[in-house]
Amino acid sequence: MTETTRARTQACNPAAVSCPRAARPHRLACAGGSLADPAEPDRHGHNRAFLIGGEGPPLLLLHGIGNKSQTWGPVLSRLARSYTVIAPDLLGHGLSDKPRGDYSVGGYANGMRDLLSVLDIERVTVIGHSLSGGIAQQLAYQYPERCERLVLVCAGGLGHGLHPALRAATLPGSEIGLSLMSAPPFRLAEDLTVAALARLGGVARLAALSDLVEGYRSVGALRDVQARHAFLRTLRTVADASGQVVTATDRAYLAAEMPLLVVWGSKDTIIPVRHGYRLTELVPGARLEIVEGAGHWPHLYDPDRFCSLVEDFLATTVPAQHDRDGWRALLGQGRGKAALSSSRSADMVESVDLPAPVGA
Q: Which of the residues 95, 119, 172, 220 has the least number of beta carbons within 10 Å of its own beta carbon?
């Protein structure tokens, strides 16, 4: 650890979690202060960067495709006053490694389980934005015993709707277009465009402009060839030219016993707000909050409102306790009931032509 890093660590309040000394991150996000660079611990041979800081019950904040942990910057400091915040760079994003590997939502969920295990955090409230709304749902599905609550922000995995630009990026040959956009002349044009749109958006506060600015910034993060490859592999696991192909709506009934907050921008141009309304129909106990005027990044459009919504949700709900018997009952009563029925299983067994026993 360098002297600079050691000084930065001592100046910050360590997270109120019991982390093994070898796994304790070198750099922290300071409650009430500025964000430091993420730590980069090795997981299965790959460095996975993350920010951690604050004190209190743990919150896992997962960014969307093409973004990184600093996307949560405007809300981390406030949330870290009362909670331990963990904001990783997903594999293939930010400062994390970008290998030729598994970029499925299931693979990401496994990675988050591993990160929590290394940090010695058994249970957590998961906040997932966009792509990571789907990852958050998958984490709760694969490891329900690790999840206390879910906060889905303009979440993926709830319907087919998706911005045309992302649909087009799934097509063969999109690599060439992204490569051209990374050439020096295009980089300068992108930087100037983002700066101009950001200034205009700051004055007009138009959701379409806000989404366009963040979209340009995401493209700017793809100037590295490995980042472009990781982006396309991730996108193509969840979408094609027709829209999103991965959905959690068929398992939404399993969220009946878990506190669920759904936050959406009323002017979201990336994933339509109707997906949020649909989810609350499938999970009657879910709480839906629409941030008026916001686009796909409501936590950037109105950080104070977002933090207030999350803090109120955490203060007024009881963490879910995973019950295996209850989970089994939900599965038996859900859409998969016919597949689980004993009569259907018996019919399938009777239709199998079993070999005669040896010596018969």
A: 172
- Residues marked as catalytic: 130, 268, 296
Confidence of residue 320 (pLDDT cuts 50, 70, 90): confident
Residue 179 in this model has a pLDDT that exceeds 70? no
199 within domain boundaries: no
Angstrom CA distances, 192 to 187, 203, 227, stand at 9, 17, 22
> pLDDT band at residue 181, thresholds of 50, 70 and 90?
low
The two structure tokens encoding residue 1: 């650890």
Give me 295's structure tokens.
């686009």
Q: What's the order of all strands across the beta sheet hosting 84-88?
A: 50-54, 84-88, 58-62, 124-129, 147-153, 260-265, 287-291
Q: What is the CATH number of the domain that holds 297?
A: 3.40.50.1820
At residue 222 the predicted structure's pLDDT band, cuts being 50, 70 and 90, is low
Please name the helix (run of DSSP H) or strand (run of DSSP E) that holds residue 260, with its range, or none. Answer: strand 260-265
Tokens of 135: 């990852």
Domain tally, the chain: 1
Range of the structural domain that residue 42 is part of: 3-162+244-331
How far apart CA 254 and CA 267 sit, in angstroms, is: 29
Average pLDDT of every residue of the chain: 76
For residue 122, give both structure tokens: 């058994």
Q: According to the model, what pLDDT value does residue 255 have?
A: 78
Given this model, what pLDDT does residue 177 score? 67
Indicate the pTM of the whole model.
Answer: 0.76
243-244 vs 239-240, strand pairing mode: antiparallel
Residue tagged 């996307």 (tokens): 71
Q: What's the confidence (pLDDT) of residue 351?
A: 39
Phi-psi category of 9—alpha, beta or left, where left has phi over 0 and alpha has psi -120 to 50? alpha
pLDDT in tens, 223-251: 778 888 888 899 999 999 999 998 888 88
DSSP string, 276-328: HHHHHHHSTT-EEEEETT--S-HHHH-HHHHHHHHHHHHHHSPPP---HHHHH
